[in-house]
Amino acid sequence: MEQPLITAVTHSTEEARVTLKDVPHTPGVAGRIATVLADHRVNIDMIIQNEPLSAGARADISFTVPRSKLVAAREALAPLESELGIEAYSDEAMGKVSVVGAGMKSHPGVAAKVFTVLGDEGVNIEMIATSPIKISCVIAGDEVPAAVRALHSAFELSGPDTIRPERPFGEFA
To answer: Domains in the chain, ordered, with CATH?
Structure first.
């Protein structure tokens, strides 16, 4: 039996984004960054890294952390900034909205619909992560309610169980 296309829209408004600019594109650097954060008890949720296109170019890495851990993340990364020659930037006013459904893996166009709906709502997508059953978009925190309503409507969801808070960092309600 085929799964429903989208079964829920989840959201979070307790996220902060950290971007590291000019990260050396060499083996082990991402591991060092993640280890420093883990050693300071900072959980990472979404991570994106670009691949530099030219030889010797450096990468940019962005990731989300709990807003309550942003100061700890910045303190943990400070020694690496000078050591690796990277620059760290952060934005504490981020949120995330996700569509969830096992049916999306067999239906082309779900991502296109999500991105179009958010664009039509005037919501700029800052980061994107996908899995076979979930598409997550990091957006400005104050845009989360409008994004949730628009996606809920676009995928014709109804009922209280179809909109729910997301707990990306392991906290429980």
So the answer is: 8-13+93-165 (3.30.70.260), 16-92 (3.30.70.260)
